[in-house]
Amino acid sequence: MQPVIQYIKTPRRTKRMACAAGLLAVALAGCYKDTLPVETDYLSKDMNFKKDVFVSNLGRTNMFINVFNADYSTQPLEFTLMSPRVEGKVPAPVLQELVDTRQWKDYYTGTEKSIAEIEAKRITVRRPIVDMNSQNGQLVVWPVDSNKVRYGKYYFDVKVKNGAGERLFTGLTIDLRRPRPYDPYEFDDITGLRKPDNSGGIIRPTTLTGHVDAQQREIKAENVQVYFVKTGNAANTITFKFVDKDSIGIPLTVFNYQRWDSLFYYSKMADRNVKFGFNGRIPKDSMSVTYDITNPFPILSEVFPGDEEAEYNFRFTRVSFGSRRIGTIGLKLSIHEPGEWTVIFRYRINPKFSDD
Hints:
This protein is mainly β. The protein folds into two domains: 130 residues, Immunoglobulin-like; 166 residues, no CATH class. 8% of the residues lie in helices and 38% in strands. The chain is built from two helices and 23 strands. The strands form seven sheets. The protein has a five-stranded mixed beta sheet, with no helix packed on it. The chain has a five-stranded mixed beta sheet with strand order 15-23-16-20-19, with no helix packed on it. Strand 17 and strand 18 form a beta hairpin. The N and C termini lie far apart (122 Å). This is DUF5007 domain-containing protein. It holds the Pfam family DUF5007.
């Protein structure tokens, strides 16, 4: 019978083997690392600005986000706005002068219960009139009046670089136009003239349903004209009034289906119903209703122009030959110039609010 030979590793031998295995692993890892390609930065020849003309209005914040296509260029990229100028390559250094701007330090949620709570989330910062984010190329034209910067076309270049090099995008354009203090706006922001009646020169209600005249004929949106009137600068407010075809005031008591203390509009950006103004008040004569508002109004209307508007609908109910009918008139709007604003709805045909 063959003896059984048993090999027992001593602690010293185990230590020597572990050291050898460790050295082998390091050597193999070094060899593997030497076979990997060296990572280098990449600057795509196909990266570009998605638009080269930025239409802006004096007196409001004009924001342009997601304007650059990096096309797989290595991040981070660095953007530098250069050589602001007007026609004939005349330098326009005024575009890089610093002005006071209002910026967010905390998220707006739409659940804020007062204007003070909203304003507490913003701070005042000094920034260039034409301001480019150095990390992503987003462009902002901050509010400024025509006493400082004239409307017209301005040109600028942008240098984009990373570790692989740099590219210069030349001849980008800011088309700076006359103010649009509110929307919808009935004046052309290039000429300053009122638009043709059939091309936006008359503001009509966004919503008009359930309205008839004394002869039971339907009243349509084309039978109502809306006016925006600035009445002062003491505060930021909006007041709604109604008048008939003879410009005689219509008391708000006719809107007997309205819930004045719980009015909301849907905010796309906050993705929720947001309170329409604050501190709603109706005077004793019931001829108007006034709300305190932010500037701009809605508060995110300049960040997402066209997509963020407040809609206010007035409702009444009446009995017509045994059937209850609901009438609605409303408007989608935004206001960008600070001050006290009055919105007047004028019926060209007098509606019937009483029961039949």
